[in-house]
Design brief:
Blueprint (H helix, E strand, L loop, with lengths): L8 H16 L2 H13 L5 E4 L2 E6 L5 E3 L2 E5 L14 H25 L4 H13 L1 H10 L7 H14 L6
Parallel strand pairs: 2-4
Antiparallel strand pairs: 1-2, 3-4
Helix pairs in contact: 1-2, 3-6
Keywords: Membrane, Transmembrane, Transmembrane helix
């Protein structure tokens, strides 16, 4: 069980409810997240407000139920994305964690519909070259797509920390 001495009983109870909901209402995405977790089992993991966070060697993030995958700020290969500025890299990784946590809340709200709605749109928006070109050509922020904006908003509201925006 989670053993952070700074976590109150109330927060501990919320974490238990969060985990149980992800394992029931969010079962489909949690199972996919678990499979991805197993693929990256040798990378650093920690608890992040009830979610299981994996710090992997890519600059992208993904959220699948109980599991979030975010860039590892200690990976020197990722410094190229922040012009070798380790402070900016850590800040970006922290913001991605907040954003991906927001997606876990979407999973709690939408349950089995999460993958068909948020998952599909989010993956398309982040990966398809058509949308990458659109964002680059017109300066459209990543958070322009509705699931990304919603994830930022949920993560910021719950954690009281800045997300991607």
């Amino acid at each position: 069980m989670y053993s952070d001495k700074n976590v109150s009983f109330k927060h501990g109870l919320l974490y238990v409810c969060y985990i149980l909901l992800q394992l029931s209402w969010g079962l489909f995405q949690t199972l996919l997240g678990f499979l991805l977790f197993l693929l990256f089992i040798k990378h650093p993991h920690d608890f992040y407000h009830g979610a299981i966070r994996t710090k992997w060697p890519t600059f992208n993030g993904i959220s699948l139920g109980l599991f979030i995958f975010v860039p590892n700020e200690k990976n020197p290969d990722l410094l190229k994305y922040t012009k070798q500025d380790s402070y900016r890299l850590k800040e970006r990784c922290d913001r991605i964690s907040v954003h991906e946590y927001g997606h876990t809340i979407q999973s709690l709200i939408l349950g089995p519909l999460y993958l068909l709605t948020v998952g599909f749109v989010s993956l398309s928006w982040s990966r398809l070259s058509r949308y990458k070109k659109l964002r680059q050509q017109y300066g459209v922020p990543y958070s322009f797509a509705w699931p990304e904006q919603w994830a930022d908003s949920l993560g910021e509201k719950i954690l009281k920390k800045p997300a991607l925006r």
